[in-house]
């Protein structure tokens, strides 16, 4: 079976709010990224975010508690070295997003995502249903993220779950809690959650997903740390709102 075209990938992304691209990173490229991520994780190369800082379910109570220095994210991936910079601006990512944005130049956000996501077997937290746009401030809400699996990702080690089509829904504010997580106690929300899918990703697979697509992840029940690389992009006609965190660092156009 032939690989889907860029147009077919973009059509699926628009329809369901996410699309899987198999074997997106070549084995040498993935291995270079994995080695760099493992090095920075082992040495806790700054800037990092700790599980204890977010206090999601399953996280240590504080940095002083057992497991308190469990890293959740290696931040600012773009500036961590050439392997990360090359991936974030890869022409294949640019081609898919340029098609999605109807010919506009996609721009890499160096503020949102732009990180290596880690999911540890112990002290790695559960992430509830949410939309990434909840804390972002842009002139439009048509942002797309690219998530690269540096290793195998399945439900049991904390892979992403998605709610297909949720990016097109107009959810009332009361459907979310005070932290803007989608409330699983509401019957109307439960109907959506019943549609959840968890695509299995092989090493080197990528998933593109819309910033309004509801997604979640369980804790890691395996014996190994899961590592993923994620970046967010917006079209050049979309601008971060001045004075907000989204505007605190310049984006990088994908030429």
UniProtKB/TrEMBL annotation:
Keywords on record: Dioxygenase, Oxidoreductase
Domain of life of the native organism: Bacteria
InterPro entries xrefs: Phytyl_CoA_dOase-like
A GO term for molecular function: dioxygenase activity
Cofactor: Fe(2+)
One Pfam family per UniProt: PhyH
Protein's recorded name: Phytanoyl-CoA dioxygenase
């Amino acid at each position: 079976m032939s690989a889907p075209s860029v147009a077919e990938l973009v059509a699926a992304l628009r329809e369901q709010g996410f699309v899987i691209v198999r074997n997106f990173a070549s084995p040498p490229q993935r291995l270079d990224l994995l080695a760099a991520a493992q090095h920075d994780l082992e040495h806790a190369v700054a800037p990092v975010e700790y599980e204890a800082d977010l206090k999601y379910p399953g996280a240590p109570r504080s940095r002083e508690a057992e497991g308190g220095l469990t890293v959740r994210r290696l931040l600012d991936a773009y500036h961590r070295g050439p392997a990360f910079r090359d991936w974030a601006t890869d022409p294949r990512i640019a081609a898919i997003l340029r098609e999605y944005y109807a010919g506009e130049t996609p721009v890499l956000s160096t503020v949102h995502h732009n990180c290596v996501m880690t999911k540890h077997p112990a002290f790695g937290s559960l992430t509830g249903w949410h939309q990434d746009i909840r804390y972002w401030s842009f002139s439009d809400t048509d942002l797309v993220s690219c998530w690269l699996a540096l290793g195998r990702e399945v439900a049991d080690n904390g892979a992403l779950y998605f709610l297909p089509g949720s990016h097109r829904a107009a959810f009332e504010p009361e459907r979310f809690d005070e932290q803007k997580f989608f409330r699983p106690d509401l019957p109307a929300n439960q109907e959506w959650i019943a549609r959840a899918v968890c695509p299995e990703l092989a090493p080197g697979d990528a998933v593109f997903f819309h910033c309004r697509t509801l997604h979640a992840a369980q804790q890691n029940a395996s014996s190994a740390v899961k590592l993923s690389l994620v970046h967010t992009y917006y079209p050049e006609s979309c601008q971060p709102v001045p004075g907000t965190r989204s505007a605190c660092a310049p984006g990088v156009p994908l030429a």
